[in-house]
Amino acid sequence: MNRRKNLVMIALVALVAGAAALVYAQNEAGISSAPERSGSGQAAQHDQAVSAAKATLPEGDETATAAIVAPGQAPKVLYDFNTLPDPVKRMLEQIAEAAQSGEIENMRPVFESNELKPMVTAAYVEDPIAFWKKESADGTGRDVLAAMLDVIASGFVRVGQGRDEMYVWPYFAETDLAKLTPSQEVELYRVVPPERAVPMKKAGKYGYYRLGIAPNGVWHYFIQ
Hints:
Layout: H1 2-22, H2 39-54, H3 65-68, H4 86-100, H5 108-113, H6 128-135, H7 142-152, E1 157-159, E2 166-169, H8 182-191, H9 194-203, E3 210-213, E4 219-223
Antiparallel strand pairs: 1-2, 2-3, 3-4
Helix pairs in contact: 1-4, 4-7
């Protein structure tokens, strides 16, 4: 099992390094939360996750980006996986290993190791796996797992401060898509199907899967 985890980590680092070679490499990388595990406590934690995720949602979805990013400044795009805090790296490793297995049920232990269920839609969802199966193209959720791997293989950004601090994949969630360089457009097409990417570029707003992990390793959301 340890050997498999090491291989997953190597594969993930290789994917990130590949993205860096396409565009440019930059660097840099603490939050604490004390969530409860079930019942109303779980719902309360979901509400906190909703608030954190709203900052990365497209305009029209109560965006709070201005509170997270200084006016006129875009977050620095990061590619170096090794600059992430260790808890974030461990969570990414677990997500990647479960996704690469091809069995979405293998994501359940990842949820259970988390302090709260990750948000998968704007409304509270008791069972994210059942939700993903229902939303997937073939009922297995494998296209969702593929999207997850594509997203975490992209560049990422660090946004927010204090309890709102979050590492967000892909960086397009915090980028004006109308101002992408040609190499960044290639990256976008690696994450988003062309038929969805083209209207996004025209609107300048990202509207596909995004993933957020707090510096303490808590996986907050994987949502469109």
